[in-house]
Amino acid sequence: MQFDYVSDLHIDHWDKRFITDTPYGEAKNYPMDWSNTRSDILVVAGDISDNIDNSVKYLREIKKHYKKILFIDGNHEHYCAKPSLLDHYYFSEAFRNTKDIHYLPKEDVIIEGTLFIGCCGWWDYDGGKSEITHKNIYHRAKADYDSLVERLQKYEKDDKVKDIVIVTHTVPLPRFVREKETDHNSQMVKINSVRYPKISRWVFGHNHKSYNLIGFGITYLSNPRGRPEDYDRETYTIKTSKGKKGFIDLIQ
Q1: Which of 30, 46, 114, 212 fits as disulfide partner to 169, beta carbons 3.0 to 4.6 Å?
Q2: CA 181, CA 154: separation in Å to the nearest integer?
């Protein structure tokens, strides 16, 4: 099962049509080029923009390049709701009448025996003991983790599912962490301590670094654009996963 994958597009920093007042750094005008897509399926691992309406509009706009888009929310999609988080149903309803754009936290997608499941993932922080934002994130992180594990256990027993692709915004392993004070304690990392043989690939984002590594029998993939003030990717390439390939790396 081949698919294109991207994350952290942050279109409000790269496309003048979506630039808004933002405290998070520089804005340039280098819109994405979607004319050279190589697959029928696009996986988007969160953080399209800081404005959920712009994120929705953008996915509808680029749908013409793909037969299916599978996406999850990143933490930036929720900035408009601080200190609360947007409900999962908000994203589902946004595409209820749009064919073949699938929000993975509320819809599992099976294509030719390959199952795509996912969620943002979030972080534990200090167990939600401090500010209200952390409490909300802590509870959502637990709910995301519990939901993902429940689905993994279900589909490991389903003969129709030959392999599983997980999509999260948060990182799947501590080695991918950007900020150790917060990002390292995503509950998603616990999934790797239990062997789910059907997991073949894990697409993630958030840390704005690119990865294509193999460990625990899983190919870990990340293709973020980021923002101008980090890696300044004025030229950004959509990447394609053709299967269980990558640089051999003994993550264990």
Answers
A1: 46
A2: 33
Whether the Cβ atoms of residue 246 and residue 4 lie closer than 8 Å to each other: no
CA gap 4, 43 in Å, rounded: 6
Tell me the per-residue pLDDT of 33-70, one tens digit each, with 9 for 90 and over: 998 898 999 999 999 999 889 999 999 999 999 999 99
pLDDT digits (tens, 9 = 90+) for 103-158: 999 999 999 999 999 999 998 776 656 666 688 888 899 999 999 999 999 999 99
Dihedral of CA atoms 243, 169, 188, 245 in degrees, nearest 10, equals 20
Nearest Cα to Cα of residue 218 among 235, 201, 230: 201
Structural domain boundaries of the chain? Answer: 3-248
Q: What is the pTM of this model?
A: 0.92
Q: How far is CA 5 from the centre of its chain?
A: 9
